[in-house]
Design a protein that fits this description.
By secondary structure, the chain is of the alpha+beta class. Helix content is 49%, strand content 20%.
C-alpha cells in the first residue's frame, strides 16, 4: 500500500496544481489550454475525493489508537466500538482506490456507434434485432444519452431489421456499452410458428467508439462513393434526388450506406462517421489481439462471433455466458433495465485486472 500512498499524494498535489492553473487569468484566456486542464481536473475529481475520505479515516484511526494507549476508560470503551467500523471503512476505501487507479480505457468517454445485424433465424432474427435496438435505446434514454439512427434496413413483411446502425451520444457511453459486442441468442416461439415450437435465432451486436479525424486518417483516393435514389418500404421512391450514399473503402472492402437523410451531404457525413468508427474499431481489435495478456483480463474476447448472452422467453430468463450470471426478469431487461448486468460485467473486468496486478 506504501507505493499506492505515494501515488495518491502525487495525484492530490496535481489536483491542487490544476485548481491553481484553472484560476490563472493567463490560462483562462486560452480556451484550448483551459479545456485541457479542466478535463484533467474533472477526471481526477472522484479519485481525489476518495483519497481525502481515506486520509480522514486514517486520521480518525490514529486518534483512536492514541486514546487506547493513553485515554481514560470511558473513552477507551467508545473507541473500541468505533475502531472495527473505521477499519472496515478503510478497507473498503482501499479497494475503491485500487479500482480507481486501474488503467483507464482511453475510449471510455467516447460516443458510440451501435450496429445490430440479424443473423441466423430469418424473420425471427430480424424481429429480435428490433427488440435489442429498443432495449438499448431505452437504456440510453435512462442515462440521458441521445440516440440517432444513422441507417436501417427493414427485414421483410413481419417487421424488424436486417441491420440498424445508430449513434449514441453521451458521457461514458462506450465505458458502459462496450461489453455488449458479440452474438446475442434468442430462444422463443416465433409469431409465424403454428406448431408452438421454440426456435433459436441469433443477432450480432457491435459497439464501436466514435473516432476523430485525427485518430483515423482516411485517404480520399481509397474511397469509392456512389449516390443513388433513396427507397422506402416496397421500393417506393422516397424522393426524386440521388440523396442516398454508398461509400466503399477499397483497401479493406468495408461498405457503408446511408439514406435516412434527405440531403446527400448529410448522408455522406453520417456514412463517413460510421466508416471512421469501423476502421478505428478494427485497429482496436487488432491491438487487443496483439496483446494476449491484456485480452485475458477482458470480459470475453470482443469477437463478433462469440456468443455472449442468451434470452430464453419460455423461462423468462437472460443469461450472460461470460460471467455465468442469470436473471429471471427478461421483460424488464428488454425494457432497457440492463444497468445491473452492465455493472456486473464491469465489476468482473475490474476484478480480473486487480488479480493481474496483484
Amino acid at each position: 500500500m506504501d507505493i499506492i500512498l505515494d501515488k495518491l499524494n502525487d495525484i492530490e498535489l496535481r489536483h491542487r496544481e490544476l485548481e491553481g492553473l484553472l484560476s490563472d487569468p493567463k490560462v483562462v484566456s486560452k480556451p484550448g489550454v483551459y479545456q485541457k486542464y479542466a478535463k484533467e481536473h474533472a477526471e481526477l475529481r472522484d479519485l481525489v475525493e476518495t483519497i481525502r475520505e481515506y486520509n480522514h479515516v486514517c486520521g480518525q484511526m490514529k486518534e483512536h489508537q492514541e486514546i487506547l494507549n493513553d485515554g481514560d476508560d470511558e473513552l477507551k470503551a467508545i473507541v473500541k466500538e468505533e475502531l472495527p467500523v473505521l477499519k472496515q471503512k478503510k478497507e473498503g476505501l482501499e479497494e475503491k482506490l485500487k479500482i480507481l487507479l486501474l488503467p483507464k480505457d482511453p475510449n471510455d468517454d467516447k460516443n458510440v456507434f451501435l450496429e445490430i445485424r440479424a443473423g441466423t433465424g430469418g424473420d425471427e432474427a430480424g424481429l429480435f434485432a428490433a427488440d435489442l435496438f429498443r432495449m438499448y435505446a431505452r437504456y440510453a434514454e435512462s442515462q440521458g444519452w441521445k440516440v440517432e439512427v444513422v441507417s436501417s434496413s427493414p427485414a421483410g413483411g413481419v417487421g424488424g431489421f436486417k441491420e440498424i446502425i445508430a449513434q449514441i451520444e453521451g458521457r461514458g457511453a462506450y465505458s458502459r456499452l462496450k461489453y455488449e459486442s458479440g452474438v446475442h441468442r434468442v430462444q422463443r416461439v416465433p409469431v409465424t410458428e403454428a406448431q408452438g415450437r421454440i426456435h433459436t435465432s441469433a443477432v450480432t451486436v457491435a459497439i464501436m467508439p466514435e473516432a476523430e479525424e485525427v485518430e483515423v486518417n482516411i485517404d480520399q483516393n481509397d474511397l469509392r462513393i456512389d449516390v443513388y435514389r433513396s427507397t422506402g418500404h416496397g421500393g417506393q421512391s422516397v424522393n426524386t434526388t440521388d440523396s442516398a450514399v454508398r461509400i466503399t473503402h477499397i483497401p479493406t472492402g468495408l461498405v457503408v450506406t446511408c439514406q435516412d437523410e434527405k440531403s446527400q451531404l448529410k448522408n455522406k457525413a453520417k456514412a463517413m462517421k460510421v466508416l471512421r468508427a469501423r476502421l478505428f474499431d478494427a485497429m482496436v481489435q487488432k491491438q487487443n489481439a496483439e496483446q494476449a495478456e491484456a485480452r485475458k483480463s477482458q470480459v470475453g474476447t470482443g469477437d463478433r462471433s462469440e456468443r455472449i448472452r442468451t434470452y430464453n422467453f419460455p423461462q423468462g430468463r437472460v443469461t450472460d455466458h461470460r460471467i455465468n450470471l442469470t436473471r429471471y426478469d427478461l421483460d424488464n431487461f428488454l425494457n432497457g433495465n440492463i444497468g445491473e448486468m452492465i455493472d456486473a460485467l464491469i465489476a468482473h473486468h475490474q476484478a480480473e485486472l486487480l488479480k493481474k496486478q496483484g
